[in-house]
Write a structure and sequence with these properties.
7 helices; DNA-binding; N-terminal domain of MutM-like DNA repair proteins; about 280 residues; 4-stranded antiparallel sheet; single chain; alpha+beta
DNA sequence: ATTGGTTCCTGCTGGC
DNA sequence: TGCCAGCAGGAACCAA
């Protein structure tokens, strides 16, 4: 499930392959993603040079030499796979929806089993007003994210803190996995009403979010089912999950104090699994 | 304004 | 063994 660390890992892999390269040919095999790909996307991309790739939340923004920006979202099963010039290329798969060829002979395949991914084209000066980007909250790893900023965004919200953190308008880039992990490291119950996370609790949560995201990026993201790096390698942060997917196991801190007996519980909040330590998180 | 529920999609899993 | 219902999940959308 690509969240911020997986998107960042993908961005880094794509940047190595694409920066300064010319998109010689773009083939759209299946345009029906989350919404239809722009009908003229292949035409507008052909012959353009990639000048950079940025990331905003879970979106990659591929900058082109003519002032256009290609927005890419991986949805929940999207992958970008780079095949270097001259490298072996396995046959196209069922869910390889978009194929990019560079003039130096590299190929990039966008594969997305569940088709929740998205792509769009815009002008560089539209980035801040684009419907998918304009309402996003602060970047959790950016300077503008802090305890007071998060606290202000949680003020008056009666929804559980777990649900609030999944809302991309509160803070951008978190998904189910890293929200569970961050709440654990901040000792906060996922059920706690969002508006009660103020002051030192908000500071603690911001620190936990930043720490877990930084560590996950350093580990190349998490590979549960679908996620792979652009070169096909697996991320390994899944081995460092404290609570996610570990129902009825002891959490790391309970294990360390030897008071551990299946302290990790699972509950369902707004239709999604939440994992937490029943002893530490309040 | 905020919040909860529904929907899109496919592949895997569990129950009978 | 085989079938199908249920589930997973990011985020837009709708209704209350």
């Amino acid at each position: 499930m690509p969240e911020l660390p997986e998107v960042e890992t993908t961005r880094q892999g794509l940047l190595v392959a694409l920066e300064g390269q010319v998109l010689q040919d773009v083939e759209v095999r299946v345009p029906a993603l989350r919404f239809p790909l722009p009908a003229d996307m292949a035409t507008r991309l052909a012959g353009r040079t990639v000048t950079g790739i940025d990331r905003r939340a879970k979106y990659m923004l591929v900058a082109l030499d003519d002032g256009q920006v290609l927005l890419i979202h991986l949805g929940m099963s999207g992958r970008m796979r780079v095949f270097a010039a001259g490298a072996d290329r396995p046959p196209l798969e069922k869910h390889d929806h978009v194929i990019f060829q560079t003039d130096s002979g590299a190929e990039i395949r966008f594969n997305d089993t569940r088709r929740f991914g998205a792509m769009d084209l815009m002008a560089a000066d539209e980035i801040n007003s684009h419907p998918l980007l304009r309402d996003l909250g602060p970047e959790p790893l950016g300077n503008e994210f802090s305890g007071p900023v998060l606290a202000a965004r949680l003020e008056g919200r009666r929804t559980p803190i777990k649900a609030a953190l999944l809302d991309q308008k509160v803070v951008a880039g978190l998904g189910n996995i890293y929200v569970c992990e961050a709440l654990y490291h901040a000792n906060l119950s996922p059920r706690r009403s969002a508006h009660t996370v103020q002051g030192v609790r908000a500071e603690r949560l911001v620190q936990a979010i930043r720490d877990v995201l930084r560590q996950a990026i350093a580990a190349g993201g998490s590979s549960l089912r679908d996620f792979r790096h652009a070169d096909g390698e697996l991320g390994y942060f899944q081995h460092h999950f404290a609570v996610y997917g570990r129902e009825s196991e002891p959490c790391p801190r309970c294990a360390a104090t030897q008071k551990a007996t299946g302290c990790i519980r699972r509950l369902v909040q707004s239709g999604r699994s939440t994992f937490y330590c029943s002893r530490w998180q309040r």
